[in-house]
Amino acid sequence: MIRVEQLHKSFGAVQAVQDVSFGAADGRITALLGPNGAGKSTTLRILATVLRADRGQAWIDGHDVARDAVAVRRRIGVLPHAAGLYDRLTARENIAYYGELHGLKRAPLAARIDALVERLEMGEFAHRRVAGFSQGQRIKVALARALVHDPRTVLLDEPTNGLDVMATRALREIIRGLRAEGRCVLFSSHVMQEVASLCDDVVIIGHGRVLFDGHLEALRARTGETDLEEAFIRVIDAHPEAERRAGERP
Amino acid sequence: MSGFLVVLAKECRDNIRDRRTIISSFSLAILGPAAFAGLMALVLTTTVGESREPFELVVVGAGNAPNLVRYLGQQNVTLSERELAEPREAVENGIYDLVLVIGADYGERLLAGEVAPVELIYDSSALGKSRRNQLLARQMLAAYGQQLGLLRLQLRGVDPRITAPLYVEEVDVASPAARALSVLATLPYLLVLVIFMGGFYLAIDATAGEREHGSLEPLLSQPIARAQLVLGKLVAASLFSAASLGLFLLSLAISVPLVPLEQIGMSLSISALTCLQIFGVAVPLILFGAALLTVVASFAKSYKEAQTYLTVVILVPTVPLIITQLLNLEASTPLMLVPSLSQASLITALIKGEDLDWGHLALSYLSTSTLAAVLAWVAIRLYRRERILI
């Protein structure tokens, strides 16, 4: 479960996130939706404890991401924007490295990796070195690595980027599976169709601010649009104030 | 397994599989001593071995001075008597290295007790052999001249010793090993370079490399203390450095006995014990090097950037070595405070076969280890800041 209250984060003069608040529940898929540069990645990185917010707080399962970072790290699985695998290690070794960092013992770790390899259909390439893997294979390995310690909360930063249709479809099935297991899934995207086909809740971010937070149906109802693409654009456009201020920034 | 060991094991496994790391870490260590020994053997055989070979001296007008020619014939020279119209040109054109021209009036002048000129033609711009041969030829001619001079004095009833008021006896007290050391003076320099090269690529791969490949961000969201993460990487770099130094010493122990040092009356053996002692002295420097490389590489965003920085960093510890060699500094207390310098000075003493100064050793250990710890602390601080990702 994720709770975010009034997060602010700036890099030099650029305000990446300003006053972002939202929640994501267990057993649901929550999308962080917004155009490029909206502040999605920054928000996810604060939740992943690798960046510190300038102001505001965030909790994962009740643990403060800034003050209690190690407890948070034990409870989250992170798939960053770039998969970030080690090319000279095999898929299994990549997964095992993170399992060991989480303190998993040898035998349970091996069993856990076996289960992930089967579930993510990685049998063909699990023993091969990662160099030369396709983007789809890389995402699978990175996802397995993020899930190796069975985290309750999963953070995915644009996971379908660069995937073909088949791989995207397979990944959606996997993400639905995570929801079925009762996990809290937060993933960022800039593709409305993807969000529509997968998510329960949606948080729209534009220019570092939350523009909408609620169920998909509520979004349709609020904008009076059945086409979600249109609904998305209406929400972004409905905040000329934010746009104007963004334009003024150096 | 603690996080530290997990990181250490992963970095070692990862980098052992990288051909680039292996080549860069260990090629200098293995080939350095071999090249070094080869060079030394080459220098020795060309300067020492050759002095025993007779050299060729062309004599023009040999019939004018049969006694001189007979004298030269008894020396370590191959005489060839020729009649050359233009002996000067023959040397200029490189047909002969050394030509002795004896004039037709030589015998006449000699009999009259006058100064009898002979002409020694050589090219002083020619390198190597011919310059040395020319010196030897001059020495032989001077010795012959002196003999004649002494005889003349004796004939006139003068004590020949009157011309030699001073006699210089040369006593060289340098031990054979110490003389060999002047040849081996570059060894500490090479050794420091080997230690730094050993950890070079691993330090880059574990820091700037992780950043460039995007693997640092997920790693930093793992539940491992930053100190353990950084120390794991740092010790991995140290292990590669240590392996590099070990290979270097092994290669040195094998190749040095192949150098014909006995030809010049020198002896130098690098025993297994000496190797162990050198290794022991170098341990703090290994840690220092790994920490220094890790800190500097952490500032770089990419492999290339890190490589540029570290190439400069590697040169830094070798600069004081070159300076002290030029100034010929003695081992002293302040010297022991400087990493690389203190080790170089202690290792030089070990190779010379001198006893270790335990006070100096303790000081070297203490100062270099302290600096290594400070650098490690800086590295940990760097990884605690979020800027490491941005």
Describe the structure.
Chain A is an alpha/beta fold and 250 residues long. Helix content of chain A is 41%, strand content 25%. In chain A, strand 7 (153-157), helix 6 and strand 8 form a beta-alpha-beta unit. The radius of gyration of chain A is 18 Å and the shape is globular. Chain B has a 4-stranded mixed beta sheet. The radius of gyration of chain B is 31 Å and the shape is elongated. Chain B is mostly helical and 390 residues long. Chain B has helices at residues 3-16, 19-47, 66-74, 87-92, 106-111, 129-155, 176-183, 187-212, 216-220, 226-255, 272-298, 303-315, 318-327, 341-352, 358-384; strands spanning 55-60, 77-82, 98-102, 118-122. The chains are: A alpha/beta (250), B mainly alpha (390). Chains A and B meet through helix 2, strand 6, helix 3 and helix 5 of A and helix 1 and helix 9 of B.
Give keywords:
heterodimer, A: 250 residues, alpha/beta, six-stranded mixed beta sheet, four-stranded antiparallel beta sheet, 10 strands, 41% helix, disordered C terminus, B: 390 residues, mainly alpha, four-stranded mixed beta sheet, 15 helices, 4 strands, 64% helix, elongated
